[in-house]
Every structure is written in C-alpha cells, then in structure tokens.
Automatic annotation (TrEMBL):
Any one GO molecular-function label of the UniProt entry: exonuclease activity
The protein's name: Endonuclease exonuclease phosphatase family
Keywords on record: Endonuclease, Exonuclease, Hydrolase, Nuclease
Length: 101
C-alpha cells in the first residue's frame, strides 16, 4: 500500500474555484494535527474559516467586477456565457443528432 501511495499519491481537487493551494495545504495540516494537538487544530480551523471567507468574497467581487466591465463594453456574448457558467445550467448541444433508424 505504501508503494501505491508513493507512485500515485492522492490528489485533492478544488470543489470551489476560490479555494487556493495555500488553503488546501492548511486543510491537510489541520487533518494531521487533529488527533495530536487539539488547541492547534482549533486555531487552524479558525484560520481556515477566515481565509476561506476572505477568498470567497474576493472571488465573487472579481466576478462581479468582470461582469460589470463586460456589460459596460457591451460584450453581451461573454457576459451571458459567464452568467450561464455561474448558474450551473448546461445547455445540451447534441440534441440535433438523430439515430439512423
């Protein structure tokens, strides 16, 4: 099992776009410290929560600024594409392909 971990280490994927590599490192450290030093765990947990909140707010402020800039330049194609991506609704593109039957 150690060989498998060495050759193919587990990778952590960002579930949200605003999570930085530093936050993921802090989360990994928090996992290691949890059973060893509970006071350090609480301190890390509080730091992670504050950091995530700041990064999330900065991300959404940047998205809002980008949308505002696109709207002011009348770039509606990129504006609506960004809004569709943010809403999570994906338009099916292969509805026009039909079976040979």
């Amino acid at each position: 099992m150690d060989c498998a971990k060495e050759m193919c280490p587990p990778t952590r994927h960002r579930t949200w776009p605003w999570i930085s590599d530093e936050c993921l490192e802090m989360v990994n450290e928090r996992k290691r410290v949890k059973l060893l030093n509970f006071d350090r765990y609480r301190h890390l947990n509080q730091a992670i929560r504050c950091r995530m909140k700041e990064e999330r707010e900065a991300y959404w402020n940047q998205v809002a600024a980008d949308l505002k800039q696109e709207a002011s330049k009348y770039e509606y194609h990129t504006l609506y594409r960004t809004l569709r991506q943010l809403s999570g609704k994906v338009k099916s593109t292969n509805d026009n392909i039909r079976n040979a039957d």
